[in-house]
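Researcher: Let's continue the batch. This sequence belongs to UDP-glucose 4-epimerase, and it's 321 residues. Same format as the previous ones, please.
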Amino acid sequence: MKILVVGGAGYIGSHMVKRLLQSGAEVVTLDNLSGGYRDAVCGGVFVYGDIADTRLLNRIFSTHSFAAVMHFASHIQVGESVQEPSKYYQNNVSNTLNLLDVMVAFDVKKFIFSSTAAIFGEPQYTPIDENHPKDPINPYGRSKWMVEQALSDYDRAYGLKAACLRYFNAAGADPDGELGERHDPETHLIPLVLQAASGRRTQIRVFGRDYETPDGTCIRDYIHVTDLAEAHWLALEHLLAGGDSCAFNLGNGNGFSVQEVIDVARQVTGKPIACEDEARRAGDPARLVADSRKIREQLGWQPRYADLATIIADAWRWETR
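Model: Same format as before. Here are the structure tokens for UDP-glucose 4-epimerase:
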């Protein structure tokens, strides 16, 4: 079984490549290294390039016979998407359509799409299930929702089966210590907190302590990146076995507050971790938590690293490297 992983040199993609290789799959990684690292790809064939390059895509599909394609090659910064919407619609939508069209031309009909909770917009209720209204409030979320809608059309017209995995806050690092998170710039809470613990930054900023939550800080749903990779693997197995197109929300189902993350990080690292309180950020809801019962019931997904201390300990091991 040969799988094409686009964006396989990035944070989540590199963990997926490792999971595929461990299962005996052959992997071809395509990445332009704009947000990934060549040394994060731990095996298989690596191709430097972009899904905007249709000629390159045709050459890759002519050379290899793929059972499926997994897509992690999106731009993901919400704030940047507001400032540069063209960049997000071009890459996340137009370039993805390039990829889908080449897949159809070469009769590759299984697609795993890395989607996001941002397609839901402001939560009308929590935890958020798959039936929650889709009303994204920024170009990043809209670009992902556009692709999900296009995938429904490609299924009806061309029989292309897709699994859309909508996750909330990917966190943690490879338990073996080989892979981890290294975005530039970094915007995710857990690595920012751990950078404050290691001395790479002086403090962590807490945006708002007056939310209607037990400790006043925002609650978010953190899911270990290894558990994410496992969910993608189960979705891949589902499609390869002839399963229908599907969409799943991924999260631990509980959520942890910003202050809980800081407190647990202090315990795990033994460092004081200085904090600076700031005003709320516009558009930050008090709670964002996933209802992931559907994937648990239908695919048997069971997170193995749902404990916050475990997530932070794995990320800390990576940070100290």
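Researcher: Any comment?
Model: The mean pLDDT is 95.
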